[in-house]
Design goal:
about 60 residues; 2 helices; about 70% helix
């Protein structure tokens, strides 16, 4: 293997490592963004029965 071939192999390995690192960083950032979006989402409205109040049709009786 000549010097050019060795340099090309090193460059190819470096590019592969960089591409892998960038993919992992993107996955991590997307996961963090999904987590933050879930934290910022409003809590679901409590169900009337779960809150202990009677349903609307029972209040009229």
């Amino acid at each position: 293997m000549g010097p050019d071939e060795a340099g090309n192999a090193n460059r190819d390995r470096r590019r592969a490592r960089l591409a892998s690192s960038l993919r992992e960083n993107l996955k991590r950032r997307k996961a963090q963004q999904r987590s933050r979006a879930g934290d910022a989402a409003p809590a679901p409205a409590p169900d009337a029965l779960a809150s202990g109040s009677p349903p609307a049709d029972e209040e009229r009786r």
